[in-house]
Amino acid sequence: MFGTKRNKIFCISMQRSGTTSVGEFFRHFKYNVAGYDISLKNKWTKSWLDGNYKQIFKSKDFLKNQVFEDDPWWCPEFYKVLYHEFKNAKFILLTRPPEDWFKSMINHSGGKTLGNTEIHCKIYRREKDFVNIAQKFDRHDTTYNDNLLDLKQNKELYLEHYTRHNHEVISFFEQHDSSKLFYGDLYDKDIWQKMGAYFSIDVPKQFNIHANKSNK
């Protein structure tokens, strides 16, 4: 088991569900937070894709940070690995109405797959779509497969995935240890105060944060 002196906190909300805001919340209260930029630098999501979890857990940025938001933490069923690997870890799941979530996905990248298409297709089970388009590109070009496929024509697939992820996370912690999961509604006006109470952080009543806001 890869342990540290401080208990880890993992945001396992799906992308476009307040992950960046969670990071900003903890930064405001002086926690060490690893967000998208650190994950990208360390290629953590590629390590997740390869099943090389040890590469993630032994990296310096993983060891020195306490809070983790964005990918790969919300990638399919990775929370199960984290739960068993870090016995004292806490987890955060924020949700929003599925239709709103999908609109935010569409707005983020002009209706195209968000970021690396190969990884995106693995997460959302569109591997066949990726195979059909990947042959047109040079696999040695690390940026060749960004934002390649449309989302709109696969709306039901995305809504199903989003709903299933949230349901499975809640069910998993109910079966194992519900005290380790903070679960809340992203649109709850008191969400940050409730999160603060869960983590024993004194959050002012007027405190609010909304990072990476997209147009509805």
UniProtKB/TrEMBL annotation:
Source domain of life: Bacteria
Q: Which Pfam families match?
A: Sulfotransfer_4
Q: Which Gene3D superfamilies match?
A: P-loop containing nucleotide triphosphate hydrolases
Q: What is this protein called?
A: Sulfotransferase family protein
Q: What organism does the record attribute this protein to?
A: Marinilabilia rubra
Organism taxonomic ancestry: Bacteria, Pseudomonadati, Bacteroidota, Bacteroidia, Marinilabiliales
